[in-house]
Amino acid sequence: MKKQTLLLCAIALGSIFTGCKKNDEQNAPQANSANNHALHSTAKVTYTGLPETFESGSKTAYAAASVSLASGSWNMDDALIGNLSGDLKNGSQSVRIRNTGTLAMLFDVTSGATQVTFKYGIYGSDGSSTLALYYSTDGGSSWTQTGSALTATTTFTTATFPVTVTGNVRFKVTKLTGGTNRINIDDFDITSNDGTGGGSTGGGTTGGAATRDDNMGMGNPSGATTSTSNPNNYLLAKTQYTLSYNNSKGEANWVSWHLSSAWLGSATRCDCFTADATLPSTFFKATTSNYTNTGFDRGHMCPSADRNGSATDNSATFLMSNIMPQAPMLNQQPWENLEDYCRLLTSSGYEMYIIAGGYGQGGTGSNGGTTNTIASGSINVAAHCWKIIVILPIGTGDASRVSTSTRVIAVDMPNINTVNAHTWDYYRTTVDAIESATGYDFLSNVPTSIQAVIEAAVDNGPTS
C-alpha cells in the first residue's frame, strides 16, 4: 500500500506569486480554470422547501418519530425540535439531538446533489460532541458517510459538504460522541448545479464556483481514530482542518486541509494562541508560553492566512494543536513563501489539498545548538518539516479527478535556522520519500495506479 501522509501540495500548472500574510507566529512573548474540461451549466438548483428551517413543525419529545416539515417528512430519533434559550437557532426553532441520535430525511431529492450545508453547535452549556453527515441512494436502506466528522462548539457554525451524487439521494445527520451532551442543527440545505452531477463513485467535473471541501478529501494518512485509547494517533476533525494528534509528542503528527478561494476573506489575523480544549481531558495541551524564549517560532501547520474567511476560521488556526516548533528562518522564509504560492494559485482557478507535519527529533532555533524538546520534554522538536500539496482546477469529485498528470508538490525542509540559504523549491522531494520517512500512506483515496506515478515524481513546475 501507499506510504503515509505528507503534506500534499499539488500545484496546478499555472504560475503567479504574491506574498500573502505570514501564517506562523514568531517567538514573541506569550501574548502574543484553469484546465477547462467539458464545462457544464452552473445554474444553481435549490430544492423545493429548502433550506429546511425547522420552523413549521413540532416535536417535543426525544422518542423516535417522523415530523412533517416544509421540505418533507423527517425522522428524528433521540432528537426533538427545540425553542428554548439554550437552543442555538436561526429563527425560533432548531433540531436538538442527544446521545447518538439522528436527523434523517424520509424523502429523496431526485436531481442529485453537489453540496449540503447546515448550521450546528452545542446546546446551552453542554460539553463537546461530534457529528457526521451521511447519504443514501437506495431510499434509506444503507448509508455512507460523506466528509469528515465535525466537532460542535458554542459557536453556531455553518458546515459545508461538497458531494457528487446524481439521481435520488437523501441525507441524515448523526451525533457520534458526547453522550447526553446535546447539539443543535438548523438551516439544512441541498444544492446542485444543473447538469454537473458527477456520480457518487467518481467522475467529478471541472468548473463552477469554488467551495469549501472535505479537509481530509485525499485520505487519512495514519489511519487516525477518535478513540482515546489511541492517544498518539488521535483524530481531531475541525471545520477548518483535520489532524492526527500525538499526545507523547505534544503536537500533531499531521494536519490536513483544503484550500480554495472559498476559504479566503478579509478577517484579520487574531494572534490568539490558545490551548486546544477539545483534546481529551487526559491529554497534554500545549500553551503559548511553552514556546517563550525557546528559540523556536510557534509554527502554524494550517496557516492563518489560509483561513481568513471569518474571525472564527482564523482563530481556529491559533489553537496550539495546529502549532509546531519551527526554526524562525524556516517559518518566516521558505515555509511561508510556499504558503504564499499556494494562496496565489487560488486566484487563478485552482484548489488544493495540503498535508503538513514533522518527523524526527532535534532542531536548531535562534538560540543555536540542537534542541530535542521544549516544555520540559512535553513537546517534540522535529528535525524535519514536510508538506504535500495536490493541485487541481476548481471542480467536484476531487479525488476522482486526480490523474497521472496532476501536479503534486512535496517538500522536506530541515528544521534549522540556516534553511533560508535556499528557496522553498530547493527542498522539493517525492511523496514516496516522505512516506518512507514518516510511515504514513498519503493520497489513499486516489487509485493506487495513479498514486504510483504522482508519488514517485519530484515536482519541477513554476515557483512563482
UniProtKB/TrEMBL annotation:
Keywords from the named record: Endonuclease, Hydrolase, Magnesium, Metal-binding, Nuclease
Keyword Transmembrane among UniProt keywords: no
Gene3D superfamilies per the UniProt record, alphabetical: Extracellular Endonuclease, subunit A, Galactose-binding domain-like
UniProt biased composition (Polar residues): 222-231
Pfam families linked to this entry: Endonuclease_NS
Domain (ENPP1-3/EXOG-like endonuclease/phosphodiesterase): residue spans on this chain: 238-449
Family from the record: Belongs to the DNA/RNA non-specific endonuclease family.
Record protein name field: DNA/RNA non-specific endonuclease
Originating organism: Taibaiella soli
